[in-house]
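Input chain follows. Return structure tokens only.
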Amino acid sequence: MLKRSVGSRLYVRLCRYISNRPAKLLREKYDEERRDYPQRRIGNITLYGREPFVQDVTKALAALADAYPYGYSLVQRYIHAVEEKGFVASASIRDWKHLSGFGARAEETTPDGGLPVTSERYASFLVQFAAERRRILWSIPRSAKAAAWQKKKEQHAMSRLLRARGF
């Protein structure tokens, strides 16, 4: 294995700092905006929403932790927050897709406040989202191979979750 030169290592660190700084500032602003809303922390993930939504996401994360520890650690590392869409009124966020830039998700809910999918399916979706964030943060270009790896992680999570459930 070849070692990089000092200049090359400094360049990589500088690039990471420059690319990570805006996301860190956005996370701080996001947390400041949501400080007055009820929240629940599960590991490194903050949940914002009504009780049925929080219970569904908690159940999905617990199932993921039991059945697929690697996927759970991936989700803990790359997802910052999950919120119920429309629960938090945000003046600075006009499009909910902007949340994914720093690892937050805004999820649609059913009229009773729960998730529209099973906890296993939602947990595998979180693994897929975390794998996508990992690809972006590691500056891996979008390709068929990267998409296949991401899909493989999601499918592996789903199969492990269903196996743990008895299917």
